[in-house]
Amino acid sequence: MNLNPSTLLRGLLVTVVVLGVSIAVVFAVPAVVGADHGYVVLTGSMAPAIAAGDAIIVDDRPAARISEGDVITFVPSGFTSQSDVRVTHRVVAVHERADGVYFETKGDANEDPDPGLVPADRVIGVVVFSIPKFGYLVSFAGTPIGKLSIIVVPAVVLAVSEVYSLVEKGLGKQERER
């Protein structure tokens, strides 16, 4: 088997692209891993378990199946479910009251629990896993230069690769004709 640097580089590039696309698909369509939502973590309140810039995959779960130690994502009081504001913190206690289930939460990096309890109806779901630092790429992709680079850079790489292959085949054909 002939492994020249060009072949190794192409193999590495394909591996990186496939890995990147796979991660992007999981974030954009969490249902492929059986989850329901993908979010970018903006603060370090859950460090070191989940850092700022990480992407998280969140699965819907009934309140009765959420327990102490689970990391949940919820809409904080004062915001509507249509807002983009989400908090991801660990459940430190579950309180069952006559009017429903409430969760006491705390960021791992915070000294004190969050003020107020989180009603079950404000919980979006439980964090299934996080993708370290991928949130930075997601945030960058949302900018105009990010959108441009995500389309233009791969297109240029593909075009250059194709031109290189055509030139290589043309040179090989010329040499065989001699």
Account of the 3D structure:
- β4 (87-97) and β5 (100-106) form a beta hairpin.
- It is built from 3 helices and 7 strands.
- The model has no long low-confidence stretch (mean pLDDT 89).
- It starts with a helix and ends with a helix.
- The chain is an alpha+beta fold and 178 residues long.
- It folds into 2 domains: 5-33 and 143-175, no CATH class; 37-132, Umud Fragment, subunit A, CATH 2.10.109.10.
Give the tags.
Umud Fragment, subunit A, elongated, membrane, 7 strands, LexA/Signal_pep-like_sf, 2 domains, transmembrane, 178 residues
Write the layout of secondary structure elements.
Elements: H1 5-28, E1 37-40, E2 55-59, E3 71-74, E4 87-97, E5 100-106, E6 118-119, E7 123-131, H2 134-141, H3 144-177
Antiparallel strand pairs: 1-2, 2-7, 3-4, 3-7, 4-5, 5-6
Transmembrane segments: 12-33, 148-167
Keywords: Membrane, Transmembrane, Transmembrane helix
Organism: Haloferax larsenii
Could you give a short description of this structure?
By secondary structure, this protein is α+β, with helices and mostly antiparallel strands. It has 2 domains: 5-33 and 143-175, no CATH class; 37-132, Ribbon (Umud Fragment, subunit A), CATH 2.10.109. It contains 3 helices and 7 strands.
Q: Briefly note the structural class of the backbone.
A: alpha+beta
General shape:
elongated
Mean pLDDT: 89
CATH architecture label of the largest domain: Ribbon
What portion of the residues fall into strands of 2 or more residues? 15-25%
- Helix count? 3
Number of strands: 7
How many distinct folded domains?
2
- Regarding quaternary structure, how should these chains be classified? single chain
Regions with little confidence, pLDDT below 50 for 5+ residues: none
Spell out the CATH superfamily of the largest domain: Umud Fragment, subunit A
